[in-house]
């Protein structure tokens, strides 16, 4: 593994999940020599779980970790080749990525979608991967959130009762327009893991075809929930009408009565979650809610990837 | 000790002060196994001494320490049960506290009073303590600043000449409305230590009865200073007219001529201090000023508490 | 060495460059006992290389490092003696420096010029050096950037082909008014190293005499470039018309055709650099560009200084 941008960087998902299990059971056990290694976490956007779980993952590995908030600690970066930089951008990614990648042994980057047309070009991550000599890890980019999806798989693997559980990724309402990154990666990773994936959402909320893949699409949320083993709630804005909110229908909130349609499904969400908008208190506070354990597994997924890339 | 929210969490103040002495004399000596432990410091407000002394305390203990600026690094939290979260709060404390308390072995939180009516309910700290599985340490909450008071006691213990020194907590002017937290905790801790406490302030600045306790109250600052062994200056806003500034009388500034009324008293302040508003240059720059040593003892108090809670 | 504010603190430049070479070759080798030491990096301004290279330097030395963003993490400091602090400054540097210097074994400070008349008094650094009990390191002050100049010398030493290379510090255009700190230090350090220094700039951009020293001054950039071994580009605002932009002439941009006038000169810049304003893409992307290696040597210069001051 040379980088961790997407599931395409994982040639052996089964093996990776095995490694995660070992990391979870023995978080402080080290093999191989990664002494003196140093990780840099770059944030272009706010973060709670990603920021904290990545730091804890590095601490568990006993490697150094440095946080850099690009906007507040530093300055705006230019990402366009050939730009005449006489405006608000003080440094080109060519220098920034080259320098940071010289300073550290691994660079992990968070750069949300701006809900602008060129998001799917993944400019920030692709430019960093191009110009940075150290391996790059995706801490959520415009279109993907692979460490989240990896943590979600670790969670599902621990709770699934059948080899091919029915997993439902359901859209849910939200007051703000959000990226599709979590949904995109969840779709790719659950399909790669061989689960039976249904994506439920109002019309107009179809994911990009390269991300929905062979998942079943269902516009009737109640129908989707029938016999489900896992309900994964998440809001995203429209891909076809890019970045737009087409629906705020509160009937799409995940509620107790809908959970009763399932096969005693576990409830999942990547957090942060808007209570009583995305999901009712009763569901997220129930014994079947896995949201905190999912979050805990973010340490596991980050630590497993850092370990691979530093070894 | 399961948490460190207030002096009520200290069942053995004398023993705690003994432990602090040992920590101060041998800051790098470790007993017990706290290897691999990890502390998270959460800031909802700015900080200098608390932020830096807490980090140094963790470094002395050779445990990992992670800073999280909730507002700038993350997002606003919702603290109200049952809230329909369709506005500006992106995450409920239920999830935030549960997740952060899963990631780390100890959580320390700074959350100032907002000088709003419900401050005395201590919503932030109490919600974190309720939902966080790891022990919680108060780095100054709406009504209390126990690590400051503990450091103040360590300081007084080192300089007191009698078993029951006369300690005067005197209100002083300030351009802004400040919380009562430092004054409240100083009052409780000095009384618990058995000192002879007088609180001097203009009328209308009485602390809440549960904090002033059995302290003498004196409206005449000069009279209060007579025979004092320690003068502790601090501004606070009114409790009865909650959060209001009732007085800016510069005659309440601590000055050299007033210090002459004392029993060669030491001067104390928790810092940051407004020079020539709260206290004159001559007093704070004198050989009897303990403000820097007090600040230094913030490492000692934090380290002693962290050590107890992690062991 | 008791502090590192300027080249005046270096009594043995040749020896310092030797130490840097050792650090560069064996970054993780430690001699002497600096276990348990702790560095604090104070930022009054944004930073990328300085912030990250200083942290990596500390990590290489296996000492603790703490970042403090004075403005966002804390509050504004008062630097004026005798001030009546009833306005926006919450703490005087006297307390801040004394306390931070008690908490840590070394304090490193970044405080840019504000392009105000009193910049050359170096108020921030001089007040910190006065009141801080721990050694102070200059991470770029109003008039100097010695860790940058030290790194530049490490770079030139590795590439120079003659004992006394011709080094040209050339002014270049920039959309914003910038301090003279980098140019000032580069001038002093290169002259101290015995290089043949020419400073090229439009009229009105003369550095302060105490910084230009015995360097040749040349108003014709092309003429300056002839036979140069190193071209160091940098923008600065006027010193005589203090802080003003007198020229934005794009003919001063460093371009390929000008580089052809040199003795196959290496191109240098401290970064961040405005591409196609200060220097053309072709020059900075050429094999003769040393900008990333210069930046890498910032770890070396910081680590060498930290090591000296902590030993």
Name a few traits of the molecule:
Rossmann fold, globular, alpha/beta, 5-stranded parallel beta sheet, homotrimer, 2 domains, 12 helices, 4-stranded parallel beta sheet, 11 strands, 311 residues
Structure commentary:
The structure is a homotrimer of 311-residue chains. By secondary structure, chain A is α/β, with parallel strands linked by helices. Chain A folds into two domains: 7-144 and 298-310, 3-Layer(aba) Sandwich (Rossmann fold), CATH 3.40.50; 148-295, 3-Layer(aba) Sandwich (Rossmann fold), CATH 3.40.50. The first copy, chain A, has twelve helices and eleven strands. Chain A has helices at 13-25, 49-60, 70-73, 93-103, 123-131, 146-159, 181-192, 209-212, 221-225, 256-259, 281-284, 291-310, and strands at 38-43, 64-69, 77-78, 91-92, 106-110, 136-138, 166-171, 196-200, 216-218, 230-234, 266-268. The N and C termini of chain A lie close together (10 Å). Chain A binds chain C through residues 36, 38, 40, 64, 66, 68, 72-75, 78, 82-87, 90-92, 94-96, 98-100, 102-104, and chain C through 28, 43, 46-49, 51-53, 55-56, 59-60, 69, 72, 175, 271-277, 281, 285, 291-292, 295-296, 299.
